[in-house]
Amino acid sequence: MQSIAHASHRHSKQLVLLGAGHAHVHLLKTWAQNSSPDTKLTLVTPYARTFYSGMVPGFIAGHYTLGQCQIDVPPLVAASGAQWRQAFATGIDAKHRRVTLSDGESLAYDVLSVDTGADTSQQSIEAQMPGALAHAIFVRPLEDLALRWNTLCEVASVAHAPLVVVGGGAAGFELACALRKRFASAAVSLVTGANGLAKNYMPSTRQRIHQALAARSITVVADDCTGLTPTQVHLKSGQPIPSLQTWLVTGSRAPRWLSASGLQCDDHGYLAVNPYQQSCSHPEVFAAGDVATRMDHPHPRSGVYAVRAGPALARNVSIALCNLSNPPGAAVPLVPHDLPRHTLNLLSCGDQSAIASYGPWSVQGRWVWRWKDWIDRRFMRRYTLEP
After folding, report:
1. What's the Cα-to-Cα distance from 88 to each of 44, 138, 154, 192, rounded to whole Å?
2. Distance from the CA of 322 to the CA of which of 120, 131, 262, 312 falls in 20 to 30 A?
């Protein structure tokens, strides 16, 4: 499905971007260089900065300042000529092409692009782990973590503080290593769940991950967390472990407001998109990042894919806008975004060393961290504009 009906009779075409994720950052930068005079661009995001998730473990470990991990939104907005609505999206009415906002207003669109990321499933986690809302530290949204950082550091700096990370994926591994580096005297534990650690990775990478944790005296607990108190993490096995701070990186869910949007979603509520990053049900809607599922090629929800989707998203949104003005039968075809068979994953080990994983291949060392640092800093330079 590629065709898009002609624009309505409004004087200018309306392009609305929901969220300032990695793909939309690229779209804004591209728009600043090749804007369309007959299109009004509106960005909807509640925050004046967006964090590059690839550098957050480095920030927690102490290798980067907070400013080095963030992209300021206002300069991108100014350069692109966009209007910035500082609000959350609370709903989409796909039938009438409108977006409702947290400030009570709504926006009409001719073309809509969604890159809000997924929601951290705090309410559902509370149902699985009673006490999580009151006692856990949710790593996302990163904006909230940044605001609490100084206070969190004061607590974690207590000598021999027991710190617990709950999460069996790559984020849990990187966070545990970062906390070990930042708070050298802490007793760090990683609760992976009964299924174990890093199950999405090949055996060679999993072996390196376990070796890295053992070398850093990080205790791995292959059990499910069933609840939290101010001083303990309760496990399914019945044996609690002490915790002064419990950090949760246990996954995310689709934004709840998508369920009533009228847009086709996958079985878990994420936006269903095709090879053009275009909605499978509404061709005027595009999406990228963790909020979307490529139905032709499902893949992990990872920043690697979100960054790669940026150029394709910008290109196809631009084509879709042009097609609104083209006569019937003269639509320019969209360009498919071909996904790689394997992606390069670079996992920080906290102490300026890292693990590189590419399909069945893996390698580890300080040179890998320098490679990751170079990639991350290059990304930030590309999208950081002077105010």
Report:
1. 7, 19, 31, 32
2. 262
